[in-house]
Design a protein that fits this description.
This protein is of the alpha/beta class. The chain is about 60% helix and about 10% strand. A five-stranded mixed β-sheet has the order 1-2-3-4-5. It is elongated. Keywords: Phosphoprotein. It holds the Pfam family STAS.
Length: about 290
């Protein structure tokens, strides 16, 4: 970009900012519940200041260069923040596109007497803003992927709780699809809890699992074997009829594993093994 155009845009920075804010606030899709006008202005002012200060650079294609680092850092931070706040890709994209419109409108007004220069400088701005849009989308997608990954980890952690139902007895109720990755987490959590509590019995309740394939069944058998190596006995409860049929059809041998129809029967069996007796106390008669 020529020095005169760079200086022109630098002098018109406030005009660009006001026009850009006007464009953004006119967008009916702007999420005022996610961002205040003051915060929007603060983000816009920070970016336009860094951008206009960098327009003297002749290279608008290599945004990986050090001279563009401040602009990319600010834009990336805004995109990541918006991804975490729940903005859509369209809303985030409009943030950059509306800035391009504001800069081109100012250029059109200021260079209307020199059509050739207006065309040349507009081409450069278009190229630059398109590259910045790509950076914005890439960063936004990366932010969303981080959010999804964190939520997946949290859901996985919540969906495989190891409960200490009695002194020496652990229960791990599993709800939902049980794949190889989740089965591995089940094993790790269960073994860790056995170490921490010194429990001798662990109950794997799969009554909330709709289906089990041969690979998952093998993982369950490995979990039982690993539990035994830790000095504890593992009981599988809540096997649905359709899962039982699948296990038989696949020829998977569970004869060495203690299985119970329900979690209650598995708990009753555990009490028996541990020589515990639970009695119902008769109601105390009122005098």
């Amino acid at each position: 970009m020529s020095q005169t155009t760079h200086q022109l845009l630098k002098n018109k920075k406030k005009n660009i900012l006001e026009l850009w804010m006007k464009n953004q606030l006119a967008d009916e899709g702007l999420r005022e519940d996610l961002i205040s006008n003051d915060e929007l202005r603060s983000q816009s002012e920070e970016l336009i200041t860094a951008l206009v200060g960098n327009l003297s650079s002749g290279d608008f294609t290599n945004l990986d260069s050090d001279e563009w680092s401040p602009v990319i850092e600010i834009l990336g931070g805004i995109a990541i923040t918006r991804a975490r706040q729940g903005f859509s890709p369209r809303e985030t994209g409009n943030f950059v596109f509306s800035l391009k419109e504001a800069i081109l409108e100012i250029l059109t007004i200021e260079l209307k007497g020199d059509p050739m220069k207006l065309f040349t400088e507009s081409q450069k701005i278009n190229r630059l803003m398109d590259n910045l849009s790509v950076v914005t989308f890439e960063t936004f997608i990366k932010g969303r992927e981080e959010v999804i990954l964190r939520q997946t980890d949290e859901i996985t952690e919540i969906s495989t709780p190891v409960i200490r139902v009695w002194d020496g007895i652990l229960a791990l109720p599993i709800i939902g699809t049980l794949d190889s990755a989740r089965t591995q987490i089940v094993m790790e959590n269960l073994l860790q809890e056995i170490v921490e509590t010194g429990s001798s019995i662990a109950i794997l309740d799969i009554s909330g699992v709709p289906a089990v394939d041969s690979l998952v069944a093998q993982h369950l058998i490995k979990t039982v074997s690993a539990t035994r190596l830790m000095g504890a006995e593992c009981i599988i409860s809540g096997i649905r009829p359709e899962i039982a049929q699948t296990v038989v059809h696949l020829g998977i041998d569970l004869s060495n594993i203690i299985t119970k129809a329900t979690l209650a029967s598995a708990l009753a069996y555990s009490f028996k093994v541990m020589r515990l007796e639970v009695k119902k106390i008769s109601a105390v008669s009122k005098s």
